[in-house]
Design goal:
four-stranded antiparallel β-sheet; disordered N terminus
Length: about 325
């Protein structure tokens, strides 16, 4: 399920909410330090920026947890929301703060689930044998955007956990992925894209555009399309191994990972692809960046032996 191909899911991340201070022209950052020391990964801010939902193994298995963003206890105050034997992944908080969408692998199939923000009323939204991953929300919390092989008829056997053509980002099944939306009640499934290769998608803050990673053979690049799937345009330029894009809180910029010198580092660019700027140049590899709702911080995953999460001041 992970698109960081060099990393098995069970080895992912330590949550880090502390960093060497950075302001102004301190970028690219050279040093970042960890906070927690167990397997925590795939973080997502609550809409008020006070909490972080994530996957953690600290209570056994890969389950959805919530922690305070201001925690000073190395994650010891983390609260487990999901239970059971299934492996969970990629939680995403709804903009109204009421719900959390996430992925759970049931009977070998990745499905989208939904629950209240306190972990109650867990419901399965997608059905069948298709792979359904990476849920995010529309700004009005009315629908969930996700990647699916439903329209291609592909299943996990068609390339989940099989390295992509470029061997360093993504899986073969990404070629079969389309973008779709579904309502929180599980109805009104709508296809957005055709042609495959679309993953890690999210709506712009104004809901008019969709940012996503697109794979074409060995290329992995960042694209932006209209919300209806039209006018899909490459904003990576000459970058050929980019991934994990995310909007800034005002929708004017995009933070993403780019592979340089055989590692992934974080970059930021304007929403049209202009003015690309490197944010990290530190030990490890940096992926899954998330801009805080107030626009002041960036949270990301860092692979350095295991994987940790780092938070640092966002660029001005």
């Amino acid at each position: 399920m992970t698109s960081f191909q060099a990393l098995p899911l069970a080895v992912l991340v330590l949550l880090c909410l502390n960093a060497v201070p950075a302001i102004g022209d301190d970028f690219p950052l050279k040093r970042l330090k960890p906070l927690t020391y167990v397997v925590d990964y795939e973080p997502f801010w609550s809409p008020d920026g006070r909490q972080i939902v994530l996957i953690s193994s600290r209570h056994g298995g890969m389950k959805v947890h919530v922690m305070d963003a201001s925690s000073v206890g190395n994650g010891s105050d983390m609260r487990q929301l999901t239970t059971g034997d299934a492996e969970d992944d990629t939680p995403a908080w709804s903009p109204d703060g009421k719900k959390i969408a996430f992925v759970s692998i049931r009977n070998g199939v990745s499905q989208i689930f939904l629950m209240n923000a306190d972990g109650t009323d867990v419901r399965q939204l997608t059905k069948g044998d298709a792979e359904n991953i990476h849920p995010t929300w529309s700004p009005d919390s009315a629908k969930i955007l996700f990647n699916t092989t439903h329209f291609s008829g592909a299943t996990a056997a068609d390339g989940r956990d099989v390295p992509s053509d470029n061997k360093v980002i993504g899986e073969q099944i990404d070629k079969k992925m389309e973008l779709a939306t579904i309502r929180p009640d599980g109805g009104d499934l709508k296809r957005i894209t055709t042609g495959g290769g679309c993953t890690y998608a999210s709506y712009s803050p104004d809901g008019r555009s969709i940012l996503h990673r697109r794979v074409q053979a060995a290329l992995s690049q960042i694209f932006v399309m209209n919300a209806d799937g039209s006018n899909d345009r490459n904003v990576s330029g000459e970058g050929n191994l980019d991934g994990w894009p995310a909007w800034s809180s005002d929708g004017k910029r995009i933070v993403f990972s780019r592979r340089i010198k055989d590692v992934f580092q974080l970059f930021v660019m304007n929403s049209d692809g202009g003015n690309a700027r490197q944010l990290t140049d530190a030990a490890g590899e940096f992926v899954n960046p998330r801009w805080s709702p107030d626009g002041t911080k960036i949270l990301c995953s860092r692979r350095l032996g295991d994987m940790n999460l780092v938070i640092f001041p966002a660029p001005k």
